[in-house]
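ENTRY TYPE: protein
WANTED: fold as tokens:
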Amino acid sequence: MSNEIIEIVENGGVTKEIITPGRGELTPMIGFDVSVHYVGYLEDGTKFDSSRDRGEPFDFKLQYGSVIKGWVEAVQTMKLGEVANVKIQSEYAYGEKSFPPSIPAHANLLFEIEIISFGRITDISKDGGIIKNELVSSTGGWQTPSYETICSANITGKLGSDEGDVFYNVTEHTFTIGEGHIPDHLEQVVTTMKMGERSSITVQPSHGYGDEGLEGEVSVPPGTILYYVVELLHFIKPKEAFDLDNFEEKVELLERRREDGNKFFKEGKVDLAIKKYEAALGVFEFTSDLEPEELNEAKGVKMLCYLNLSSCFLKKKLPRKALENAEKALEIESFSLKGIFRKALALAEQGEWNKSLKCYETCLEMDPGNKAIIRSKQKLQRTIQKQNAKDKKRFAGMFQ
């Protein structure tokens, strides 16, 4: 029994017969990247081309000029996994042109086409770790969510692939970018999406939950690839710093972000704290329009953010970044006790012990009874003594 012949183009210019129905409701759109297997025949049954014989799918961009017109018309109607016999009249194929010895002029062509995948593919992480595949394009303009944007989305997460077990499923879920409401790997993708867009996301373990996995209310086994489908329903962007009306509003925004960063730091959410402090610093990225008094106030609150960032990077064992931010704080206030102390800690972590000791000595000249500084200096001195003892023993052995 033959299947229904579907007329894709009027007057039978392009028709298809579905052999294997596809999955879901989505079909490729113009501009999408599409991957297919196909076999091409002349009307007399002569096979002239086959991706299956080559052993690899055919990848192309769905647009006129990339493939013949009949393919553009037919593929737009096909679902993921669908297999169809597509008949294309010559005017939608190569027309008067011939491609000896395979395809004569004015040839009507028959294709068996299987849709393997489609979408607009973007490497979000630039290393293959997070891949976004746009399935439905936006209908809501060009803007995308930014830091502290309030978003609403439908999110489904599966283990391994689109056919894996569901581990995460929320509808009309409201969250704020930068607040830790959704995993960081999802935040990275959502900030590239437009309103109304629907995309699938593949996350490698290195950018997901790694070799440790995730335990708790949501469980992910170690080393698992994650597959999501995200539909961004709508979002509300906050005012950017340059949109704020006056200096006081900017200071208020900076202070709020700094306080939020402090809260995250106390909760042990260091990465979120870093984002808050960096966003706070961005409020006064440009200061040329400030009055002298305003500039001094802005520098004061920025210095606090640099000090806090230095603490965060020390916590994350990133001494170079800790040192960089401590020095930025000291550029604003060269005799900041906390700034010199953070610098001493960072230098010690980097193995620059003599420079670190000099910083500790400067700190103790400013505050001789500071117990935290005294303990840190003593700890470094013990480390130096142990290293000197090891070096002495090693070098002594060389001359025996």
Q: What stands out?
A: The longest strand covers residues 109-123.
